[in-house]
Description:
Elements: E1 2-4, H1 10-13, E2 19-20, E3 27-32, E4 37-45, E5 49-54, E6 60-64, E7 68-74, E8 85-86, H2 91-98, E9 101-107, E10 117-122, E11 125-129, E12 138-141, E13 145-150, H3 153-159, H4 162-165
Parallel strand pairs: 4-8
Antiparallel strand pairs: 1-7, 2-8, 3-4, 3-7, 4-5, 5-6, 6-13, 9-10, 9-13, 10-11, 11-12
Amino acid sequence: xxxxxxxxxxxxxxxxxxxxxxxxxxxxxxxxxxxxxxxxxxxxxxxxxxxxxxxxxxxxxxxxxxxxxxxxxxxxxxxxxxxxxxxxxxxxxxxxxxxxxxxxxxxxxxxxxxxxxxxxxxxxxxxxxxxxxxxxxxxxxxxxxxxxxxxxxxxxxxxxxxxxxxx
Length: 167
């Protein structure tokens, strides 16, 4: 059974920080602006983002809601997959929870990603660095990002709180 729901603000759709979708949905088919489609498992969506593990490449991605045109939640046959979760967190807070990890950033409208860099969140900015001392090389506004792909998935998953994020 397929279930499509709009990404509504928490206050109009939920009564708690976490919401478990009915019907055991454990995957999301995300269509992004520009026609890109991603199938995600270990899905969590917040006030302004949706994130999860790509099933085809096994990389962790985060898509800001401004770059998403639709989301369809599905139930895959794998019973070991955790259910889709919702949180009231914003994308910047969620990324801070990952800690400093290597990531690739696709700015809005770009066909090519920026070079893979260590990224960390500072306010409404993502600070990127390829230097061994962590010195900032580039700032990218969180509002100007179409997709974030975490290069080192093991580090990111290790940094996540399993109970909090459903991983």
